[in-house]
Design brief:
Elements (H helix, E strand, L loop, with lengths): L3 H20 L13 H19 L5 H19 L10 H24 L6 H5 L2 H4 L1 E3 L5 E3 L6
Antiparallel strand pairs: 1-2
Helix pairs in contact: 1-2, 2-3, 2-4, 3-4
Length: about 150
């Protein structure tokens, strides 16, 4: 898998494409239109989440989910503006958030298989709270209890 410097521009292009398509008053027809609006939302945010996960490895999955969910909500707020001529739908935001969450879970499963080193503690941002660290072979290792 390419490094962050290769994937990050792809992520930024995907963000720009998603934003433009969401805010165009009449977006162009796409072959995936036949699957419905929610499918398009879930595909877009699934791709964004995967690209984000491998672009920003130091940010926890929870942090990425929060940012992507906020981006989806911001799109819906912008679509509610009369000048945009689009409809705001909270269900679109829910679809965006669910898709991002599922894609981040997929990335968590894929990372060790692709040699990306997104371990339990680093990925969830909970390693110290769970008392776990990761050894060089990506296995969970319990920390010794400091109280004896």
């Amino acid at each position: 898998m390419p490094n962050e410097r290769v994937i990050r521009p792809l992520f930024l292009l995907a963000v720009a494409f998603t934003l433009v398509m969401a805010l165009l008053p009449k977006p162009p027809a796409l072959p995936i239109d036949r699957f419905g609006d929610k499918f398009e939302h879930m595909l877009a945010f699934g791709v964004l989440a995967l690209l984000a996960r491998f672009s920003f490895r130091r940010i926890s999955s929870w942090g990425l989910l929060e940012h992507l969910s906020f981006f989806g909500a911001l799109i819906e707020v912008c679509q509610s503006l009369p000048v945009i001529h689009r409809d705001c739908d909270a269900r679109d935001w829910v679809a965006d958030t669910i898709a991002a969450g599922l894609a981040l879970l997929l990335a968590r499963w894929l990372a060790p298989r692709l040699g990306q080193g997104l371990g339990l503690g680093q990925d969830l941002g909970l390693g110290q709270d769970l008392g776990l660290v990761q050894d060089s072979d990506h296995e969970k290792v319990a920390l010794a209890d400091s109280n004896g």
